[in-house]
Fold this protein.
Amino acid sequence: MVSSEYYSYLLRMWQVPDDGHLAWRVLLENIQTGEKHGFSCLEELMAFLGQDISSENNLVGEDG
């Protein structure tokens, strides 16, 4: 299991046209596991990070 004490991500962000305005697109790669996740907005990214960190902390608490 990956240690919950340290998280390392590569974050790629770019903008694309969307109905006359620019929208963010995001690709997040977990450096430790190589797992990649794509998001269509910054809110989805933040929700994922909060959930990912919270679930890891819960797993560590159950074992330790």
Remarks:
- The chain has one domain: 1-49.
- Residues 1-49 form one domain.
